[in-house]
Amino acid sequence: MELPTLGWQSIVIFVVFAVSLLIATYCTYAERVIAAFLQDRVGPDRAGPYGLAQPLADAVKMFTKEEFFPGGANKALFVFGPCLAMITALMSSAVIPFGNNLSFGNNAFFLQGIEVNIGMLWVFGVVSLGVYGVMIGGWASNNKFSLLGAIRAASQNISYELAMGLSLIAVLMISGTLSLREITLQQSSEGAFVWQDIFNWNIMKQPLGFIIFLVCAFAETNRTPFDLPECETELVGGYHTEYSSMKLGLYLFSEYVNIFVVSAVMSVLYFGGFNFPFQYELRDWLASSQGWELASAQNLITALGTLLLFGKIFAFIFFFMWIRWTLPRFRYDQLMRLGWTILIPLAVINILITGGLITFGVIK
Questions:
Q1: In a domain, 272, yes or no
Q2: Rounded Cα distance, 301 and 306, in Å
Q3: Separation between Cα atoms, residue 158 and residue 102, nearest integer Å
Q4: Where in the sequence is the signal peptide annotated (predicted)?
Q5: What percent of the chain has pLDDT over 70?
């Protein structure tokens, strides 16, 4: 029986959403464990063995806490804000290719929710909408600290989206497509010299663009040292000061979902996505020397590629958390100066350099 394409896409989207929420939930546990390790103290160790049930306890706490609406708040928008933040965070993961094709009978399917030829724009556009959830929540709270946090978030996102978009233009110039699947496949080495596996990754062609994108990713996800919208020392809790119960949980979880998504995007755009060295040599060896069917060998390579992609994603998530407990928070004027006077000019220079290298045939 053939599996309809729409049915397969529905399954993949459901699994991606479920995995995103699970990773976001256990990112809270990883954050505490990593913080405890870096600060030489004991982390969560009460709920379950090694504290592994702590995220579940936090979820129960969020669901059972008292609902609170501040006086003078716009109740409809007060509820809509965190919902929009979570929805946009989850939507951006739908176009990320988490693996190559799997073969079932006569059908081949990609491990990707939906494939659109503007996947890069989809991620960029949907992530940009997430700031509206922050803005709406901050304004609807009827609290001056929440409003200041929302204004900071909007200014910060607008400033760093420019540099992030310009850094992506250089990748677009090299790949010639906005499809995340095509960008990933172009970083493979089938038919090329075997040692070109890693050298095909865009990080080798765009080191400056990757650094710009990485810095902007910290600002877009409101992570330290760019967590000015929720700066406790100045704004109590920022845009979610007045939130409690699961509405606060949606804001907190959406931040970790965004970290997961931006880590996946960086892995796909710059680190080869699901590609890994010697993948095609391993596939051909299994098919020729071990008697595997070519489809079965390809399925194994796809599974290994997906596991390695998640390994790259988890490495970036660890980096996000490592930076949080290592660097101090920027001042707001330093944050804006970095975006407008340093990152944007560097991104423009990177575009000019990339264009010159393409023109003279150095990058193909």
A1: yes
A2: 9
A3: 39
A4: none
A5: 95
Write the DSSP string, 153-190: HHHHHHHHHHHHHHHHHHHHHHH----HHHHHHHT--T
Angle between helices 5-38 and 75-91 in degrees, nearest 10? 100
CB 34 within 8 A of CB 318: yes
Number of domains present in the structure of the chain: 1
Q: Is residue 42 part of a domain?
A: yes
CA distances from 195 to 42, 87, 203, 272, 277 (A): 44, 41, 16, 14, 8
Task: Using alpha carbons, list the distances in angstroms from residue 123 to 89, 113, 127, 162, 163.
Answer: 10, 13, 6, 14, 15
CA atoms within 13 A on the CB side of 61: 10
Which amino acid is residue 191, in one-letter code? G
Spatial CA neighbour of 239 closest among 159, 130, 143, 129: 143
**Across 257-274, average pLDDT:** 92
> What average pLDDT does range 326-354 have in this prediction?
90
- On whether residue 364 sits in a domain, the answer given is no
- Give the amino acid at 126: V
Give the pTM: 0.90
List 134's β-bridge partners, or say none. Answer: none
Name the helix (H) or strand (E) containing 300.
helix 294-324
Dihedral, 329, 333, 336, 340 alpha carbons, nearest 10: -130
Q: How far apart are CA 217 and CA 43, in angstroms?
A: 27
Enter the tokens of residue 22: 């699970």
Contact between 202 and 363 under an 8 Å Cβ cutoff? The reply is no
Identify whether the C-beta of residue 110 lies closer than 8 Å to the C-beta of residue 99.
yes
Domain span holding position 104:
5-359
Q: Smallest Cα–Cα separation from 255: which of 230, 277, 278?
A: 230
Question: d(Cα 302, Cα 307) in Å, to the nearest integer?
Answer: 9
Does residue 112 fall inside a structural domain?
yes
DSSP string, 34-48: HHHHHTTS----SSS
Distance, in Å, from the CA atom of 178 to the CA atom of 327, rounded to the nearest integer, reads 34
